[in-house]
User: What shape does this take?
Amino acid sequence: MSKTKTLGEFIMDGQSAFPFVSGQLTRLLTDISVASKIVSHQVNRAGLAGILGDAGSTNVQDESQQKLDVIADDTFMRILSAGKSVAGIGSEEQEEAFICGDEARNGKYIVLIDPLDGSSNIDVNVSIGTIFSIYRRVTPVGEPISEADFLQKGTEQIAAGYVLYGSSTMLVYTTGTGVNGFTLDPAVGEFFLSHPQMEFPEVGSTYSVNGALLDTCTEPTKKFVQRCHEDNSLNYRARYIGSLVADFHRNLIHGGIYIYPSLSNKPNGKLRLLYECSPPSFIAEQAGGIAIHDNGRILDVQPTELHQRIPYYVGSKNLVEAMQECLSS
Ligand code: AHM
Ligand code: MG
Assistant: This one.
């Protein structure tokens, strides 16, 4: 009888192809999976545990934090900073990058994370997610890390992934050799490989954009959406959950494009390059999709600040290319 691979076995198999590596990445990916199981558990029982609602605080972007935002941030920070493979962590919830303790001087990796994305859906039992990105540090091991370690182009990512807390909890990640998805079996507390080698369908027909913003967004997005309305050839469908991870995941499986464009009052859009755009862009490209901003590839953007925002278009090739056409015409 064949047995489904666990995430732990899958990570170890990846490592055994490189017998001389230190094992720090294996440890780090394992830590992410452990933290995500804890967060998944908290999300599932939130209504019973009194941890729904506003935490009464705001984050660096002046957005109010939900109690679960704070719990997820604390959980990932605590577990990742204790793991000795991480030298520093940038979190969407924290103003400054976090430099891990003394032992982390030898940690090889930098993590950028949005611990719980989709804040507006937390209280209402709609899918939310964690998004993470792993870079190799650029300062030599043993020396204090610097800003340059955090501000790296998306092309430098060693691994990226997301955890979707939906009707089931899934962890999807890439280390640059394809995209694989694992489903958490809550009865045994283990992620099992359920979606091997995920690929965007060649032709997608779903577009995900906040329709209420269309009046204030720039002409190319208006034009793209107009085309979707008028073109009967593809049977276009609009689907917008308002949780990037959930919208991205659906589009990855069924084909589609996610759009958060430039707006007249927010020229850089809303989403943060390092936490919300670069990691799914790495996954998208590994799965045969495309990820762009207003004039180029997301992964080629050199970040200049930790919480930088950027207009974002990601998904199936046919749709992102159509969007690109609108952007350049
Ligand atoms: P958050 O980091 O505060 O949760 O914001 C990010 C979320 C994305 O998950 C989602 O796609 C988008 O914001 C929705 O924004 P809007 O309500 O403006 O459409
Ligand atoms: Mg977010």
In short: The mean pLDDT is 92. DSSP finds nine helices and 16 strands in the chain.
